[in-house]
Amino acid sequence: MQHKLSCGHYYGEVMQSRQVGGLILTETRYAPGVRLPKHSHEHAYFCLVRRGSYTEAYGSKSRACGPLTFVFHPPEEEHSEAFDDSEAWSFNIEVMPRWLEQVRSRSAVLDRAVDFQGGAIAGLAMRLYREFIHMDDVAPLAIEGLTLEILAEVSRSATKPCGRQPPRWLQRMKEIVHAEFAAPLTMERLAKLVGMHPVHAASEFRRHYECTVGDYVRQRRVDFSCGRLTGSRNPLAEIALEAGFADQSHFTRIFKQYMGITPAAYRRMARI
User: 111 is in which domain, residue-wise?
Assistant: First the structure.
């Protein structure tokens, strides 16, 4: 029998919870290997995976959720989870109906599930989590503002027109960049590998993926670093070099630009 969880309720252990205006913020912890039955939630909510990993089934689909996966669950969406062999922590932002109405008139995307792996949206969610942890008299205002920003970004990202599929050579170039993000890359070398002129290759990459090759590399390095910051005790300087940054200073500057906090602060938050 499928269970419907009421406002503010989740499976797993609730570590802390706060209500801010029309939002309910909850941090939950899950034991290794636990299996959650098919269930739904009364209200829509976002879920940021801070630690651990699991597989989530929803409808006829499934998604792999690891650190910095950010998922929007519409109201009453049925889903189930199978957690891997390590403890998992999630940060949930339950959104009351009046919040959704602020964006629904401009987009219907929030009527369906959508997920993101790292990137700028996960960075916004981590900033919101920081406000949740270090609550002061200004935090409610910051939390509401960040939630609206997240709603806008999720809506904007998920409603972008699909347009024409990237050509196979461009997909191949993206695969190379994705795999070799930590290595020194040049447009000349990338273009040569896929048989294209560097100017054309750079232009098509930006047109189809809405970022430059350099932006994509930086984001991949930051996402990799997030995993290393939470999954290892390696010094920041060592992680910086592993990710392809010139040094720790360069690493800190780019990381803060994308995530809104320093690598050291992110590591501390991830271990709370």
Answer: 3-158
| Domain count across the chain | 2
* pTM of the predicted structure, to 2 decimals: 0.75
* Domain co-membership, 115 together with 233: no
pLDDT tens, the chain, 272 aa long? 468 888 888 988 999 999 998 899 999 999 999 999 999 898 889 999 988 899 999 988 899 998 889 999 988 889 999 999 989 999 999 988 877 776 666 555 567 888 888 877 888 898 899 899 888 889 999 998 898 888 888 877 765 655 578 999 999 999 999 999 999 999 999 999 999 999 999 999 988 887 899 989 998 999 899 888 887 889 999 999 999 999 999 999 999 888 878 999 888 877 66
Q: Are residues 146 and 16 in the same domain?
A: yes
Do 172 and 138 share a structural domain? no
Q: Are 148 and 163 in contact (CB under 8 A)?
A: no
